[in-house]
Amino acid sequence: MLSTGMRTKNAVIAAAGIAATLTVAGRAQGPADHPAVTVDGQRYTPASILARNMGSAEDQETAFPPHKIVGNIYYVGTRTLSSFLIVTPQGSVLIDTTYERNAEVLKKSVEKLGFSFADVKIVLGNHAHGDHQEGDAMVKQMTGAQVMAMAEDVPALRTMKPGGKEHPIDKVLHDGDTVVLGGVTLVAHLTAGHTQGATTWTMKTSEGGKSYDVVFFTSLRSGATVSPAVAAMFDRSFALVRTLPCDVPLGDHPAEYRMQEKYATLKSGAPNPFVDKAGCLTEARIQEAMYHAVVAEQQK
Ligand SMILES: [Zn+2]
Description:
This protein has ten helices and 14 strands. It is α/β, with parallel strands linked by helices. It folds into two domains: 2-52, no CATH class; 62-298, Ribonuclease Z/Hydroxyacylglutathione hydrolase-like (Metallo-beta-lactamase, Chain A). The strands form three sheets. Strands 3-4-5-6-7-8-9 form a seven-stranded mixed sheet, with helices on one face. The protein has a five-stranded mixed sheet with strand order 10-11-12-13-14, with no helix packed on it. Strands 1-2 form a two-stranded antiparallel ribbon. The two termini are 32 Å apart. Residues 127, 129, 194, 219 line the site of zinc ion.
């Protein structure tokens, strides 16, 4: 028990360090350890969710073994920051560049899978926070890709300027827009709340003669307080994600779809563990429960 507590505490401190929220006393202060919610027998607090998502600084920068997820979709991110490569005959789409310092990590992972980073033609993001989209300018420099972003996230992206570089935005998208490349159609669903333009992406892929609906969920994590405007966004988003056809749930942090656990059971010939219809809404249910608990707590 003690060691588990210690590990959690260390992970929270590491995550809080990234968020640059040191108190004057030098004591790390991440998100609160309340309210707590229990979903499927597992207890969560804002602090435990952030620790689960971010891991240590090392986790955020260390490649997770790149692997095929399903069909033409591959994982090329780090241990705790997702990055997905969608390969088509006309080049690739990259969802989430993560931190700028990870650009070479992603490139190596793409190459390890036998693909070329220069083939990345389109860069998409899930939401305008640095751990997911800080690297957009660098990846554009390295590949010449077009960067596309949901209109509501554009103001936040414009303030993201690693090393003074302007955040590239080659095309502004709106709710329901499609991004098409080499026979693949990705649909952009505005699922705001965590940020104004948080975007859930959906597409179809096929494997072994079967077609699968893939959902790249954005973060649905509420902040420490929720304004009425943000509550309206979350209410709409939680209702919307329930309507999305889904066989393969993915997320902006691997823990949201239990990547490590599923990866460990990958075996050729066995059913693909990433096909997890029953798990499609697990993360949304955790975040919705937490969102309601946060709202209830602030109304006390
Ligand atoms: Zn975020």
